[in-house]
Specification:
This protein is an alpha+beta fold. It has helices at 4-13, 18-22, 27-30, 35-62; strands at 73-76, 86-91, 96-102, 108-112, 123-125, 130-133, 138-141, 147-149, 158-164, 167-175. The protein has two domains: 4-62, no CATH class; 73-175, Rieske [2Fe-2S] iron-sulphur domain (Rieske Iron-sulfur Protein).
Length: 179
């Protein structure tokens, strides 16, 4: 008895094409998966997913919280940053960008520069006093880092800074963590 696929190919092409010879399909064996085998495979895959999820959960339980010992770092001199301007700097050891904004004569704030939505860099808009994410049009309050509008759901991580007579220093994290 001739294979129905081979017969159909011969009727259509008058001979079996080269690709059909290189990749033969044995129709009798191709669809031979019993219900019992299907349920067995389904159970094994489900067990694999469950084991992976359980492993990740266990790892999160035993993971120790990373404690960062941030070293005090001078960011910029007070006189070099005018009122309403911003300055982008890199946090040492982490190689993470951050942004420092001078809001008034004696008020400085610093935040992580990556948007909490999809990690795009935020930019300071002096006229609106917001930190703006140009990727998806999200905005954060320039004084607090809280979300004003757009897709981000979490505020920007806030950096702890010290303002001294000789400059502005990064000393650690006040809220959140850098991503």
């Amino acid at each position: 008895m001739q294979d129905p696929i081979e017969k159909r190919l011969q009727d259509k092409y008058k001979e079996v094409p080269k690709w059909a010879e290189d990749f033969p399909i044995d129709q009798d064996r191709d669809s031979n998966v019993s219900r019992r085998d299907f349920i067995r495979y389904l159970g094994l895959v489900s067990l694999g997913f469950f084991t992976g999820t359980l492993g990740m959960w266990a790892k999160s339980l035993f993971r120790s919280e990373q404690v960062h010992n941030y070293k005090r770092m001078k960011i910029i001199d007070k006189e070099d940053l005018k009122i309403g301007e911003s300055y982008v700097f890199e946090i040492p050891n982490l190689k993470e960008p951050a942004i420092l904004v001078r809001l008034s004569q004696d008020e400085f704030v610093a935040f992580g520069q990556k948007c909490t939505h999809l990690q795009c860099p935020v930019i300071w808009k002096k006229d609106e006093k917001i930190l703006f994410c140009p990727c998806h049009k999200g905005a954060f309050n320039g004084a607090t880092g809280d979300v004003l509008y757009g897709p981000p759901e979490r505020p920007l991580p806030k950096l702890k800074i010290e303002v001294l007579s000789d400059g502005i220093y990064f000393v650690g994290m006040e809220r959140g963590e850098l991503v």
